[in-house]
Amino acid sequence: MERCGCGERDVGSVRGYIHSVETMGTVDNGGIRFVLFMQGCAMRCAFCQNPDTWLRRGREVIVARVMREILDYRPFFEASGGGVTVSGGEPLLQHRFVRALFEECGRCGIHRALDTAGYCKYGDFASVLDSTDLLLFSVKAVDEEKHVRLTGVKNDVILANLRLAASRHMDIVVRYVLIPTINDSRQDLHDIAGLVASLPGRARADILPYNRMGIVKWKQLGLDCALEGVPEPTADDLARARRVFHEHSVNLRTD
Ligand code: SF4
Q1: φ, ψ (nearest 5 deg) of residue 33
Q2: What is the CA(117)–ligand 1 centre distance, in A?
Q3: pLDDT digits (tens, 9 = 90+) for 129-173
Q4: CA 43 to centroid of chain Cα atoms
Q5: Could you tell me if the CB of 41 is within 6 A of ligand 1?
Q6: For residues 77 and 83, is the Cβ–Cβ distance under 8 A?
Q7: Which residue, of 113, 153, 218, 253, has the greatest Cβ tally within 10 A?
């Protein structure tokens, strides 16, 4: 029988498969974060920084053991306003593990952020949202054809999941990776800013500049990267994108 590190209650030995752990992360949310990168993703984004997470094999762990490790960092979370972020790959492919982990974090008073692309059944998504404090939701493109070209899948389920999450009035940051010539046309920017503006509740947006560092991993894995010749956005590109979000009165994340 496994116990949570708080020793307050028994937890099931829910298993998950992880790619890696970053114990002092600072970029995925405010404060010092324990970032757990889950293994497996059903999407194939052309700009993916972590193509080595795509396959569903990785290090097997159970919730109680991960919790014990997390609790070692609680003083850092408390001092910095940080907590736990579960990312990937796509963490919702392992929704039972993420839910069990987040429930334990909640019992121990640890802030929980879920970093997802939302490509899963709504029931699986909702089961994790109940124990999520902050939702970091990536939208790759609003135009469906463009989304298929960029990710290999349609975005109807993804956008429906985003709207359903927003209807809960939870803390949401919609993330948009800005990729020159791919998803940064004036229409693309109005589409994504308009989408965020239309959500109920208090959704903010975060514009992330595409960076080419992931291409190295693609090459190491023997994969052809479709964005090989695509540049990173300039400061002017980012400023232009921010202006469109401001036109739609969308709050951009600043923390
Ligand atoms: S959803 Fe994330 S992990 Fe999956 S392919 Fe896209 S960028 Fe990579």
Answers
A1: -120, 145
A2: 7
A3: 999 999 999 999 999 999 999 999 999 999 999 999 999 999 999
A4: 13
A5: yes
A6: yes
A7: 113
Ligand 1 centroid to 38 CA: how many Å?
A: 11
Three-class DSSP category at 139:
coil
- Atom number in ligand 1 closest to CA 140: 6
Residues 150, 189 contacting (CB under 8 angstroms): no
Q: Secondary structure of the chain: what % helix, strand, coil (to 5)?
A: 40, 20, 40
- Report how far residue 54's alpha carbon sits from residue 41's, in angstroms, rounded to the nearest whole number: 5
Our answer on whether the CB atom of 32 is closer than 6 Å to any ligand 1 atom is no
Query: Model's pTM, two decimal places?
Result: 0.94
CA distance 102 to 96: 10
The rounded percent of the chain whose pLDDT value lies above 70 is 93
* Integer angstrom CA distances of residue 133 from 115, 159, 194: 11, 20, 24
The answer to whether 164 and 197 have CB atoms below 8 angstroms apart is no
- The residue nearest atom 7 of ligand 1, judged by CA position, is 48
Please tell me the distance between residue 42's alpha carbon and the centre of ligand 1 in angstroms.
Answer: 8
